[in-house]
Automatic annotation (TrEMBL):
Coiled coil: none annotated. PANTHER family: HET DOMAIN-CONTAINING PROTEIN (PTHR10622). This is HET-domain-containing protein. Residues 229-250 form the DUF8212 domain.
Length: 250
């Protein structure tokens, strides 16, 4: 049951079934806590509207404006729409994340390290070097939504997932057919799907496993502190679900 942000009022709204509402979703790289961190639900929910927050982050403001200008009343951002002090809510969100991105009407990818005027197809473009391509969670955020728009650091349009599919394939290894929706995710073997995440990084070691659950349609409890055992549990769940022996290559 996701908590959405109303882009007009700045109020949080609960909608039990995300498939019944139209919303935009944000994909981004989290800022380092030493650099101010991200706007969290914990420091915002006591206000009647998040827009009244005296230190409302530029990222939340930028995302809401882009979504609102495109006609979206509801938006979802993993930083401020999850109460991470609740282990139950956090575990539900982690298990539902792929589905929430898949059901979104539009996914905006905010690239804080890409300038306006950058040409993604160029071999030395900022787009190709963006940290967004190296993070663990952003893999499912690239694959799950049907419609994805990439935005520069000043929230200007850079390109779409479909239009940039050949370039994205060279950067990420994810097949053009998957990026464009011409092939189903389950048509790709387990080992190849895991290989897409091989060079990606996560802040928490457990997230290496949790961020891959949606790619295999499996669910398991999120237990921070279990370390590398999370990936072992992920492999066990995949074996139960998908009869593909290529998993053992990992």
């Amino acid at each position: 049951m996701p908590r959405f942000l109303n882009t007009w009022t700045g109020e949080f709204e609960w909608h039990p079934d995300p498939s019944t509402v139209t919303y935009a979703i944000l994909s981004h790289v989290w800022r380092d806590p030493t650099d101010g961190g991200e706007q969290s639900y914990d420091d915002s929910h006591e206000r009647s509207t998040i827009f009244a927050h005296p230190a409302l982050s530029d990222k939340v403001k930028g995302f809401c404006k882009v979504a609102r200008d495109a006609g979206y009343r509801l938006a979802w951002n993993d930083a401020c729409c999850i109460d991470k002090t609740s282990s139950a809510e956090l575990s539900e969100a982690i298990n539902s994340m792929f589905e929430w991105y898949r059901l979104s009407d539009m996914c905006y990818v905010y690239l804080a390290d890409v300038s306006h005027g950058d040409r993604p197809q160029d071999r030395r473009s900022e787009f190709r070097r963006s940290r967004w391509h190296k993070r663990g969670w952003t893999l499912q955020e690239l694959i799950a939504p049907e419609r994805v728009e990439f935005l520069t650091r000043d929230w200007r349009f850079l390109g779409t997932k479909t239009g940039l599919a050949p370039t994205l394939e060279r950067i990420t290894g994810v097949d053009v057919s998957i990026l464009t929706g011409r092939a189903a995710l389950d048509s790709v073997g387990v080992a190849r799907r895991i290989s897409w995440a091989h060079q990606r990084e996560t802040t928490r070691v457990e997230d290496r496993a949790y961020s891959l659950m949606g790619l295999f349609g499996v669910h398991m409890s999120a237990t921070y502190g279990e370390g590398h055992n999370a990936f072992i549990r992920l492999q066990e769940e995949i074996i139960r679900t998908i009869p593909d022996q290529s998993l053992f290559a990992w």
